[in-house]
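Section 5.1 Outputs to date
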Amino acid sequence: MGARIGLVLGAGGVVGHAFHAGVLSTLAEEVGFDPRRAELIVGTSAGSSVAALLRAGVSASDLAARAMGRPLSAEGARVLGQAGSTSSARISDLPQPRRFRIGLASPGLLARTVTRPWEARLGTLAAAVLPAGPVPTDVVSSWLGPIFGDRWPPGMWVCAVDLADGRRVVFGGPRSPAARVAEAVAASCAIPGFFSPVSIGGRRYVDGGAHSPTNADLMAGEGFDLVVVSSPMSAARPLGGGLGLAGRRLARMALGTEVAAVRRGGTPVLAFQPTAEDRAVMGVNAMDPGRRHGVTVQARTSTRRRLARADLADRLDILAQA
């Protein structure tokens, strides 16, 4: 029996999706790890879309090929062909909002945040005070419907935030509300102020990144031999400076707290965060489809460089056994 691997795929928009593709394809090539074999995949926002692709049977190499606009393998073309999604056209055609609405997306959540500040998170506060976004999430997830239908694949947890109370909801997890894959991914990707909230079972949901950019703490206590994290929204050292670094610092701190919780249970963690070179290519607009090719190529380069470090040998050995 192979090693039990947990895989965490964080938020990060279109650019984050490309970062995941670069990291995972390089792990597959250099270590022999097929992320489709991960026992549990926790996906948030962009990570939920990648998680669904993996559970649909799309390989890491095809994730990279898709991000770079290159031909897919016969297997990848077959899987994505079920939904007419063999290219990057859908992401590239993502509409940019020409006007933004006014008003609070959730006055109730804002009131709850004011009266219970000890429970407040910056992301959920933003979800409450920003207006509901004007862009529908169909372009992100509707193509998943023909692939999965009413079936929920085993070992996939998708994180979203309930807009009524700000609580994290983990679709596919224990005691989670019922949802289709397409619905859950749409909810997880519903960036506050950009995408419209997604209604499931009479409740409205927004991006799981409003709770945490990675939600890696969900892996704590699961007893895996190794947890692999791809975190597009944080930053690897050296942090340096530059526009948008404050948000990346916060995401790095959140990830550090979550990883510590996983490690306290005796599970080693292998985390990939954008290097300074990665961040220069990623830019500050997470929804810029024009950066997908460059981000994937650069993430492959930085991941390959990181895998050469001697101090990772024990974790890479576990990964190779998966």
